[in-house]
Design goal:
The complex is a heterodimer of chains A (about 270) and B (about 600). By secondary structure, chain A is mainly α. Helices cover about 40% and strands about 0% of the residues of chain A. Chain A has a two-stranded parallel sheet. In chain B, a hairpin with a 5-residue loop joins β18 and β19 (about 455-460). Classes of the chains: A mainly alpha (about 270), B alpha/beta (about 600).
Chain lengths: ~270, ~600
């Protein structure tokens, strides 16, 4: 889909005074002109050499190569969740938090469940940079104070969602209907579910925040698929410079750019 | 601690703990003068090459990658004496600096001067209202230096950092203009200033360490022009456009060939013989080996908490004992605590849309009409003041999902509204004068230790009605300005009587523990940041602030560092001696 088509297909809300500059002119020359860089200064060529990838150093518009339907998404496999049934609960829970609607895709379509899976498999999921010496306060702890890692809390929370759903509706969480799923999530949000070693409302907050991270972080992490999260929010991503629009009275729409186009590559 | 196990290195003139603004300014000034200086930075080295391509909200804002991780060391927090303090465990959201340049690399760059009132706070209040106006538990005192004496150091720091600003119409005298004019103005900032003027206020642009043009500082270092990318806070600048120690003072210091900055050098103790500091004991974290770096002059220029903790662990100075009402090291902990002081009022606009994705760390405007020199404190019921400001630093997509009150925080309606209002909102924030109380202090925790087995620093702090009231008022004024700006929906968090300090509220704006003052009984350092009790030990940083003003602290940190450097040079040239005569009190035996 060309840049022009993608703009016209968007539903304009609110102000009609929106400057459409299409794809950003992120060529090196335009950047220099806009930014007034002291190329002879402390940074000079080294910085600029590192700032743009090969694709941006020409004057051609960056193309977002459309992904054909049958391209294999190798990154869409689980590295933390061993049981599919737990992952299925995660998918449904995140989708209730950020559902698909007229604005665009929901959590599942954006890759949020796989994003969370990868995060939990990494240092953050293992609380690797946190302070982990005891004593710990025990029951009713917030996420911050829990003896469990974020990965452990997630597993416990998702399994308890299934348990609660089965108790209330005689269905697993992913089989329950939307209203039922919302009811289960609300019980967690209110702190009404007895989890071990952590408070359920604190787990719910973690789930909500992780979902939003999955919607809006750079797509390099597995979420915000095709930058659709940013597109819905009209957030242009990793843009080098806004010098040319910072004083603009009008709202400026731009196609987003992600770190794979912004960072230097070989 | 068996010091003989450490490998003793060759003596140098000066050893400095820390490489942020404080450590960097001192290093540059002393190295330029020809002194042999060793810098000990516990973290790793970093430079602009590390920041290129770093526009990543998840990594730097959410996971806080540049700040101290808490595996080696953390802090504990409690409200009152009868509680056991609990540790801060989650690294993200507890933004304490580390690595070359420290917190001064991922700061936003708002750089203020504090007021003449601040430096003589006690005598000015007593003069105007009498002694009785000061609550008995409030431990404010005069700093032992006046604004007029400090002015030239403010000027010096502003020129080092290329601060871009305009005169505060209600502010103190300046000997010179800002070295750079204010950065570009956005429609939101314009709207704020128009509304403020209509309400009778005197708005002016936030003084910014990100300038709109290339700048060469007096040391010959270049700071590039800001490009308004809105990835300022918690990020390094991939453009060399944010004044930080790396592109300024550390570079200057290194160019003299008199400065040896060691990374992975974790200071454990300031060594001394009871009378004089002899050096610093540190661990090389790349090998695990311990070293002793002897020096004629020792400078602790780490963050507020680390400076305080090092003195307590090293048994220097008299530790503050709240129960006994005696002692100095650890007292007067203050700050702009998040849940009362760094919250703001948000306005949602139906008919305006802003480029909220663009901005810079210090792009904004403020009003000083509620600063303490403008207020009648008897009427107000609080003894300092506040500013109300707009800061367009960018509304990042993960962290910025404000919705009108009553909207659920997840689900269909949440998605709809958070998308709709993403670029249709403005938040006004405030900062308040945070005054010290005898019950808010720092000491060593009895239960939790760091990776070396040393006790963590414990923060004991609770809010008073005084603290809550000043912030409630500030929020009301924020709402008033948003209404004048034409916001359709205006809301602010409520500060209730139950709103209380916790580990989540400890901020980079934290001060105290090794406070400055006029005498050795009520303070730890004199106005050159020289320890009263140990003349060859200087403790530089916001640890020296006896209270917290109503603006960002870094301008004052920079000014105090320049003054301290001047004092150190005087000290070394004189071959010793206290640089200031104490008003009363005796030196420790």
């Amino acid at each position: 889909m060309s840049n022009q088509e993608s703009k016209e297909s968007k539903d304009e809300k609110g102000s009609s005074e929106e400057a459409e500059i299409g794809s950003q002119d992120v060529s090196r020359r335009a950047f220099l002109k806009n930014a007034g860089v002291a190329t002879g200064g402390v940074i000079g060529g080294a910085l600029l050499g590192g700032l743009f990838t090969q694709s941006l150093q020409t004057d051609t518009k960056p193309t977002t190569s459309p992904a054909p339907e049958d391209v294999k998404e190798f990154m869409e496999a689980r590295m933390f969740f061993t049981r599919y049934e737990d992952f299925a609960v995660l998918e449904q829970a995140t989708e209730r938090i950020f559902p698909e609607d007229d604005n665009g895709p929901g959590a599942i379509g954006l890759g949020v469940p796989f994003f969370i899976d990868k995060q939990l498999a990494g240092p953050w999921g293992m609380n690797a940079k946190d302070y982990r010496q005891g004593p710990f306060p025990g029951s009713g702890a917030s996420i911050d104070q829990s003896i469990q890692t974020r990965g452990e809390v997630f597993l416990q929370g998702l399994r308890m969602m299934n348990q609660l759903s089965t108790e209330k509706f005689d269905k697993t969480f992913d089989q329950a209907d939307e209203e039922q799923q919302i009811e289960v999530l609300q019980a967690f949000e209110a702190g009404d579910v007895a989890m071990k070693g952590v408070d359920s409302s604190s787990f719910f907050m973690l789930l909500r925040e992780s979902t939003l991270e999955g919607v809006y972080s750079d797509p390099l992490y597995g979420g915000n698929k095709d930058m659709e999260g940013w597109k819905m929010k009209e957030f242009p991503g990793a843009v080098p410079s806004y010098t040319d629009i910072i004083e603009s009275e009008e709202f400026v729409k731009m196609d987003p750019i992600s770190l794979t186009d912004y960072q230097q590559k070989s | 601690m068996d010091e003989t196990m450490a490998k003793k290195l060759d003596k140098v003139d000066v050893v400095i703990i820390g490489s942020g603004w404080s450590g960097g300014i001192v290093a540059a000034e002393l190295a330029k003068k020809g002194y042999q200086v060793v810098g000990l930075e516990r973290g790793k080295d970093q430079s602009i090459e590390d920041f290129i391509g770093a526009k990543d909200e998840l990594r730097y804002t959410r996971r806080s990658e540049m700040t101290q991780d808490l595996t080696m060391e953390s802090f504990t927090v409690r409200n009152t004496l009868d509680e056991s303090a609990i540790p801060i465990r989650d690294k993200a959201g507890f933004n304490i600096g580390t690595n070359t340049g420290g917190m001064s690399v991922h700061w936003t760059g708002v750089t203020f001067r504090w007021l003449p009132f601040d430096f003589e706070i006690k005598s000015k209040l007593v003069e105007k209202y009498g002694e009785e106006i000061i609550p008995k538990d409030m431990t404010i005192h005069d700093w032992g230096i006046t604004y007029d004496e400090l002015e030239k150091y403010y000027d010096q720091f502003e020129k080092t950092a290329g601060i871009a600003g305009e005169d505060n119409p209600l502010g103190p005298e300046r000997s010179d203009d800002y070295p750079n004019p204010p950065v570009k103005e956005t429609p939101s900032v314009q709207l704020f200033q128009e509304a403020a003027k209509e309400l009778g206020y005197h708005p002016y642009r936030l003084p910014s360490a990100n300038a709109d043009q290339d700048y060469e500082n007096p040391d010959g270092e270049t700071i590039n022009a800001c490009v308004y990318c809105a990835f300022c806070t918690l990020h390094g600048c991939d453009f060399g456009a944010k004044a930080d120690p790396i592109v300024t003072v550390l570079k200057t210091a290194k160019e003299t060939n008199n400065y040896d900055l060691r990374n992975g050098a974790y200071a454990k103790r300031i060594l001394h013989d009871g009378e004089r500091a002899t050096g610093v004991l540190y661990v090389d974290t790349e090998t695990g080996e311990e070293y002793e770096q002897p020096a004629d002059l020792v400078v602790s220029a780490a963050f507020t908490f680390t400076n305080t903790r090092l003195l307590l662990l090293s048994e220097i100075g008299k530790p503050y004992d709240f129960k006994a009402g005696k002692g100095v090291i650890g007292k007067n902990y203050t700050g702009h605590h998040t849940n009362i002081g760094l919250v703001g009022a948000t306005g949602f606009f139906e008919n305006k849309k802003f480029n909220n994705f663009a901005g810079a760390g210090a792009l904004g405007a403020t009003i000083d009409d509620y600063n303490p020199e403008q207020l009648d404190h008897l009427e107000e019921g609080f003894l300092h003041g506040y500013e109300v400001y707009i800061l367009q630093e960018g509304n990042p997509p993960i962290s910025g999902n404000n919705v009108p009150e009553g909207t659920p925080l997840w689900g269909k309606e949440f998605k709809e509204k958070s998308l709709h209002y993403a670029n249709r909102q403005i938040t006004l924030a405030h900062q308040y004068g945070s005054l010290p109380w005898n019950h808010n202090f720092l000491d060593l925790d009895p239960n939790y230790t760091d990776a070396f087995g040393d006790p963590l620093l414990r923060i004991t702090c609770k809010y008073t009605d005084h603290d809550r009231n000043i912030n409630r008022q500030a929020l009301e004024k924020s709402k008033e300005i948003l209404e004048q700006m034409g916001a359709d929906i205006i809301q602010a968090p409520e500060i209730t009587d139950e709103t209380e300090f916790s580990g989540a509220d400890v901020e980079a704006h934290s001060a105290g523990g090794v406070i400055m003052g006029e005498d050795a009984e009520s303070s730890a350092v004199n106005n050159y940041s020289q320890m009263w009790d140990m003349e060859n030990l200087f403790v530089v940083g916001a640890s020296s602030f006896p209270h917290f003003g109503h603006h960002n602290p870094t301008g004052t940190v920079g000014a105090m560092a320049y003054r301290a450097a001047e004092g150190m040079i005087k000290y070394l040239e004189a071959g010793g001696g206290l640089l200031v005569e104490a008003k009363r009190g005796r030196r420790m035996a």
